[in-house]
Structure formats: C-alpha cells, structure tokens
Amino acid sequence: GQNIDQPTEMTATEGAIVQINCTYQTSGFNGLFWYQQHAGEAPTFLSYNVLDGLEEKGRFSSFLSRSKGYSYLLLKELQMKDSASYLCAALDSNYQLIWGAGTKLIIKP
Amino acid sequence: SQTIHQWPATLVQPVGSPLSLECTVEGTSNPNLYWYRQAAGRGLQLLFYSVGIGQISSEVPQNLSASRPQDRQFILSSKKLLLSDSGFYLCASTIAGRDYNEQFFGPGTRLTVL
Fold first, then answer.
1. Distances from the Cα of B64 to the Cαs of A87, A96, B17, B84, in angstroms?
2. A92 contacts A25 by C-beta, under 8 angstroms
3. SS3 of residue A86 by DSSP
4. In A32, B24, B93, B98, which residue has its Cα 20 to 30 A from A94's Cα atom?
5. Residues of B in contact with A4 (CB under 8 A)
6. Which chain A residues have a beta carbon less than 8 Å from that of B49?
7. Whether A101 and B107 lie within 8 Å, measured CB to CB
8. Burial class (CB in 10 A: 0-12, 13-18, 19+), B11
C-alpha cells in the first residue's frame, strides 16, 4: 500500500531551527511536496523535490533522499507566524498526490 | 495568475439534506481539478479528480458525486448528507506551465452536518 508518515505535532521556540521529517512508501515516485496550512485555511505550496539533495528557499529548506524514501523540511529563524500544519505529499507513478496527515508545529515565544 | 473560487465559505446542513458545492477556476485552461475533504486535525482525503469535461474519477466510494460541466467548473454533490460528511472541502487545480503536479487550492468550504 501507499503510506506517508510524519510526526503529529512538534514544538519549537521562536528564533530557533526545527526539522520536520517525512517518510514515504508509494507505487512509483515522481517527487515530494511540502505544503503549509494555517488553521482554518487552505494549504499553500512550499517546495517540490524530485532529485536527491537540499533545496533552499529563504528560511525554508527541503531535503530528499529517494533511496531512503525520506524527506525533511527545515525551518530556520522561526517566527510566530510559522505556527501551522506542514503537509508532506508524494507524487506516485500515476502522478497522484499521496498526502500525509500533517505535522502541527507550535512556536513558543 | 490562477484563482480558485469556492462557495459557500461555510455551510450548516441537516442530516439527509442535499448538497451542492461549486468550484470555478480562473487564469488557466484544461486544468486537472480535484475535490478533497479534510476532517478536523487530519490530512487531505482525495474524493474526486477530473482531467477534462465530463471525466470524473472517484477515489472513495461514498454518497458523494462530482461533475465537471465546463472546463473550469467542478461541482461536488450529495443527495442525502450523513453526519460523517462534515469537514473542510477543498477544490484544487494543477497550475498551467508546471511540468510537475503542483496543486493550487481554493479557500475551501467548511461543512457541518447536524
């Protein structure tokens, strides 16, 4: 079967760094997405990785290891507005997104 | 740029009543369109997707149906709502010009069935 695993909840301090991990098992693989979702709002796109390695976009970076079926989202210099759920999703062989349940990130002052 | 409209934003319906949620997309042609449901504190559940007018694929058997009468219009319906149909309904579209399946989401409809 197809499965995405990510922690349910994480807590971090304002100004710190946090890493949210995601492991995936899919029928074929065509890339890995990270989305941010604030409470009561729609998800918004953060990053897409299809090749191994690290992609950096400002305070946010995303890493992929295809051989390990593993990705992480790294958030630096955390701000209170980063409090949200972070959704990991893998694109399978049919180009359908398989979604994780999301990681709720709580930022404390 | 692409925009997705969904209405209504919130809806409270009694069990057994019908449902019609509408999604329209602007700024693109022939997109893939998706209906998702998100229960409170949970991930996204794909309900239906469409690759063109009149073409609907159902991912989860249930009392919901979908239709795509026009290229940029996607409708989610039910003849009789169940309590378990409560949730946050999101319409999504692929983005023109992307060579990967990035999905762009509408603002969502929050449905409460009582």
1. 25, 20, 12, 12
2. no
3. strand
4. B24
5. 43
6. 96
7. no
8. middle
Lookup: tokens for A8: 């349910």
User: Does residue B43 belong to the interface with chain A, where contact is any CB pair within 8 Å?
Assistant: yes
Cis peptide before A43 (omega within 30 of 0): no
The contacts found for B67-73 with CB under 8 angstroms, 24 or more apart, are: B68/B33, B71/B29, B71/B30, B71/B31, B72/B24, B72/B25, B72/B26, B72/B28, B72/B29, B72/B31, B73/B22, B73/B23, B73/B24, B73/B25
Residues of chain A in contact with residue B105, where contact means CB-CB under 8 angstroms, are: 42-44
Count Cβ–Cβ pairs < 8 Å, chain A vs chain B.
46
Whether chain A has a CB inside 8 Å of the CB on B83: the answer is no
A-chain residues near B104 (CB < 8 A): 45
The one-digit pLDDT tens for each residue of chain A (109 residues) are: 789 999 999 999 999 999 999 999 999 999 999 999 999 999 999 999 999 999 999 999 999 999 999 999 999 999 999 999 999 999 998 888 899 999 999 999 9
